[in-house]
Each structure stands twice: as structure tokens, then as C-alpha cells.
Amino acid sequence: MDIPKNHNMVKRSSSITINPGSTLLGEVNSSNGRGIPGDKSLSHRAALLAALAKGESQVKNFSITGVTEVMLAALNQLKVPWELEDNTLTIQGIGIKPRFVSNSPVSMVSQSPVSIHCGNSATTMRLLSGALAVWRVMAVLDGTTSLRNRPMLRIVEPLQKMDVNIRATDGHAPLFLHPSQLPLRALDYTLPVASAQIKTCLLLAALVADGDTTLIEPGPSRDHTERMMRAMGVSLECSRQPTENLFITRLTPPGSGFLNPLNIELPGDFSAAAFLIVAALITPGSKITINNVGLNPTRTGLLDTLQAMGAKIQILNLVERSGEPVGDLVASHSHLQGVLVGGDTVVRMIDEFPAFAVAAACAEGVSKVTGALELRHKESDRISSLGIELRKVGVLFNEMEDGFSIKGDQPILGGIVNPHGDHRLAMSLSIIGLISQSPVIVRDSEIISESFPEFVSVLQQLGAKVEQGV
Ligand code: S3P
Fold first, then answer.
1. Residue 8 in this model has a pLDDT that exceeds 50
2. N or C end: fewer C-beta atoms under 10 angstroms in the chain?
3. Residue 269 known to be catalytic
4. Best of 49, 123, 356, 377 to mutate for ligand 1, by most ligand atoms within 8 A of CB?
């Protein structure tokens, strides 16, 4: 197989200007693509697991964003039939049993590889690798320059232990997959880092293994896959070994040979809501309500951290819907104190450090994050890029190998900043402009549409003075 060309998404560059001096008031919802998007992690899983199910699945409030669009495009290439109408995704699953007949929907016995472009989405690349092993598809998976920098041996090595025929390019994308002999070899494996992407990739491959697969993680990574697979009839046991603080997941391949289809409604994405929560906490006079937000405890480390900082956040109407905790959040302007963040909380707020850094910059005293080396392997090196950009607007940011510290409550000056191709950096740099002395201009802000296309209009609806320009 040839190495495919390195595609970079060509998008028109735009910038946003955030002017200080507004108050955020009002209500935000998450339904039908308005307000905050449906949860991105759940959307990826729902699309892929529905494709692996037998029969028709329906997923309401599906997140239609840059990163989930590449997953859907990949399913198109694999000839999995799906339709989107008003953020409801309907998928006709093709099952987990390999089909060797020539009119198979997926080209399992094709001689030429399917070339799949995963854009900026590491979740798509890592999760899809597990599913492609199940379907025995010959494929090349590639992405943008940013995605080519993300570590891939973390999935390639354990997949190889399962006898999946996969290799990386110097530890990175492009990844090359050839059909493997089924069943795959069951795995007993300790993950080098707590990672839901590695775990999910391996649990997908484990669906067609010759016995139970056991995965051991050093932290509580998000458990959406386990919840969704269980709802589809897969037998999964999760436990915690308290003395060494290990998190154990054991999957038994479905004896029936199939997964039941899904009929679910996804909650709003907590990781998108995080920017609005912090925006309200730091902006004097603000009070906002965000309805229908996913509150899975493996995702809400930021809520605990902010509450420890003295944040006024209320959780209302907490219920369980489609197997996930969901509720409404009310956040009001608060006097924040510095805080220490480490241990399991880091895993439970792994995507929220850009938002947290803004809260820390506005808090009294020093905040310190340790044990967060994984931040260097996200859409940007989030320790270094946050430091570079936050210092530009006056934040006293101290970089450490596995974290950072911020001396808060210093004047935020404003200025021109660069999101380093990272959607979450772009959003955190935007909200700091709400309390700066002069406007903050975020260059290349189109990257925000990777996860929260309505970000600017939601801020505007709440009363923020934000302008979008090209
Ligand atoms: C994700 C898991 C996390 C997170 C990413 C989405 C997922 O990555 O940072 O945005 O959907 O499983 P890791 O599993 O690599 O920590």
C-alpha cells in the first residue's frame, strides 16, 4: 500500500474579536443542533457501534461537527447506510460477523485498500482501527499534519498482540490495516495511560476475540463505550482495584454473534458547556443556565474542581437518559480561589484544561496541575500552547513537564492570539477576552467548528460582545 498524500483541510481562515465589558445572562439548550452540540464522544461511539449492530439504530441530538463528520464520511466509504435529518442519525448496521461474499457492503476481501481520511480526529482514527479489524477491511488511515503528530503505537501495539494486521508509520499515521484471521486473540493488557480511546479501540476488536479480554487502566477514563455496549447486549464487567487504584474492564464476546441496535438521545456535550460555565463564572453580574448536559462522572472533573475553587454552580433535574446521567447547570459569577489538581481528577477533566486555565487565571492565589503529561498529546501540546498564548494576554503561566501553575488575579491585557490548530485552545482564548482590558483577537478561529460550530452565536445570545471576521 502506498502512503497517501498528507491531506490538510483547506478552510477559509477567520478570526473572532471578543470585547470586554458584557454580562452573560440567559439559557442555552442542547437539542436539534441548536445551542451546545450533542456529546462528541457519545456521537462517535453511537455511529460506530450502530454500524456494528444488527438492524436499524436511531441516535437523536447527534453532534454534527468537523470531527464527527469525518467519522460519518468514513462510514460512507465503508458502505454503511446512514441518514441524518435534523440531527437524528439513522444507521443500518452491517453487523460484526465478517461476510466473505462478493456483494458484501464492506470490501472485506477487496484487493485495494480503502483510503480513509480522519481529518483532525484522533478519536475517529483510533476507534475506527478497532472496527476495521472486526470487519477485516484493508485500509489506510490518515489525517491532517496535526493528526499525524498524535501517538498511534498506543493502539497499534495491543492490536498486534490480538493478531490484528496493523502497522503505523514511525509510531504515527498513516496506519495500514490488512484483513486478519478471525477470531482475534483475546487480550489481557495494562494500558500505559488511562485512555478511553485506547480502551474503546481494543473493546471493539475484543468483540470478535476467541475469549474474554481484560483491560487494566491506571485511571478512570470515560466509560461511555461500556455503557453503550451493555445497552446493546454485550456482557461487560467493570471494577476498581483500590490498593493500586486500577480500573479493570472485562468483555465477553457476544455469544449471539450480534449487537442489538440503539435507540437513544444524546445529551449536550459537557466539554462544550465547560467554556460557557467558566465564561459565566469569571464575568461580573453573569448567570446562565445550560439545559440537557451530559454529567457522566468520568467527564465532570472540572465541575468538582470549580466547586472546590468556590464556583457557584447548581446541578438541577439530574436524571439518567439512554444510559447516561443528564442534568441542567446554573453557573453564576463567582469569587474563585486557586486550587491543586492531580490524580484521578486529571483523567476526569482531561479535555477541560484549556477552560480550567482561564478560571485559574481569574482566581485568587496559585493554581497547580500535576500528573497531566497526556495534555502534551492532544490537538496541540496543551501545556506548551496554553503557556505561549496565555502569557501573550498577561497570564502568569509557569510550564512544568507534567502540568502547569498559574498565579491568578493579575490584569488580563488583551491582544492577538493563535489557537495552534486546537479548537479548545481557541475557545478558552476567546472567553478570557470577556474580562480583558482591551479586546482579544483569536486568529484562525474556524478550528472551533471541529467541536462547537455554534460557539460564537451562543456567546452572542448570552450577551457577549463578539464579532466574527475573515
Ligand atoms: C475521547 C477520549 C479522550 C479525549 C478525547 C475524546 C474519547 O482521549 O481527550 O477528546 O471520545 O474517547 P484519550 O482517550 O486519548 O485520553
1. no
2. C
3. no
4. 123
pLDDT digits (tens, 9 = 90+) for 376-389: 999 999 999 999 99
Q: Do 395 and 354 contact (CB within 8 A), yes or no?
A: no
Which of these is catalytic: 39, 223, 351, 444? Answer: 351
Judge whether 290 and 319 are in contact, CB under 8 Å: no
Amino acid present at 444: D
pLDDT in tens, 411-469: 999 999 999 999 999 999 999 999 999 999 999 999 999 999 999 999 999 999 999 98
Ligand 1 site residues (CB inside 6 A) read 41, 44, 123, 195-197, 200, 221-222, 350-351, 374
